[in-house]
Amino acid sequence: MKRTRVGITQEVIASIAGIAASEVEGFERLSGGLAALFGDPHQDRGVETQIEQNSLRISMKVIAKYGYPIHEVARQIQRRVKREVEAMTGLRVRGVDVYVQDLRLPEKTAEGLKVASQKSEDIQGLL
Q1: What gap in Å lies between CA 83 and CA 87, rounded to an integer?
Q2: CA–CA gap between residue 95 and residue 84 (Å, rounded)
Q3: Are the C-beta atoms of residues 47 and 30 closer than 8 Å to each other?
Q4: pTM tops 0.85
Q5: Per residue in 39-58, pLDDT tens?
Q6: Domain-located, residue 1
Q7: What's 15's domain CATH number?
Q8: Within a 10 A sphere around the Cβ of 19, how many other Cβ atoms?
């Protein structure tokens, strides 16, 4: 019987990783490249993959939501990405490195800080 090959590109693996990470509570978005400009968590920017002899190492740059324990968000991303990539590709994931690049404030908090800053400037103007 003739053997055939199935290839999975690194871009597909990166997309799977990005989608899996976006399902973790406390994850805001990937960091870097087009994802940083457009805020699309399904973009593969911010994800790098290294394939060596049927095993895979994934590095991800992410932005987390403020108020969530960063170490827990990163750990959940690692677990989910590993599980999903292995299930969808059949490759063994040797490791998932997560680098939290920034925090995203909730809109309410961000607006509150802006208002508080403005009030502080107004008060200083009166002195």
Answers
A1: 6
A2: 13
A3: yes
A4: no
A5: 554 445 799 999 888 789 99
A6: no
A7: 3.30.70.1350
A8: 16
